[in-house]
Amino acid sequence: MAEISTLSSIAHLIQLSVAPVFLLTGVGSILSVLAGRVGRIVDRARKLEADLLRVPQNEHADIHLELHRLSGRARLMYWSISLCTICALLVCTMIALLFIGDFVPVNMSSVVALLFVAAMLSLIFGLLCFLREVYLAIRNLRIELR
Question: For the chain, how many structural domains are there in total?
Fold first, then answer.
């Protein structure tokens, strides 16, 4: 009978872990988008650096300005990716503690709650960095009408 109780306890723990796992899936999707944006920024910067060798000297200032802007955007993406990754690590730790807490006679509810709040704050700040990067990308967008 104790085995059935333990099995039902583990099943309940798995049910509790489903919501954080969905959160991990969402954060993973966000990280994929962020990595794609970093790739685009790096590709654009490499193209501009190659252009420096081909364009006349009087156009170098414009290219250097755009490279400076891309550098700022890349820095924001670094922070965004770092914060979202920290969020995912905190959620993984929280899930592990949920399982450990069921087998160790220590009350970990406060630690789990703090980890969840820290994960949410990390995600919020990561998304704010992403929002700022998107704003800078759009603000610096130049569309030439012909």
Answer: 1
In this structure, is residue 66 part of a structural domain?
Answer: yes
Model confidence, pTM: 0.83
Give the range of the structural domain holding residue 111, as residue numbers without chain letter: 22-139
Q: Looking at this protein, which amino acid is placed at residue 125? A: F
The pLDDT tens digits of the residues spanning 8-65 come to: 777 766 776 677 888 899 999 999 999 999 999 999 999 999 998 898 888 889 899 9
Task: Tell me if 62 is assigned to some domain.
Answer: yes
Q: Give the angle 31-99-96 at the CA atoms, nearest 5°.
A: 30
Contact (Cβ atoms closer than 8 angstroms) between residue 145 and residue 103: no
Q: What is the DSSP letter of 19?
A: H
Give domain status of residue 114, yes or no: yes
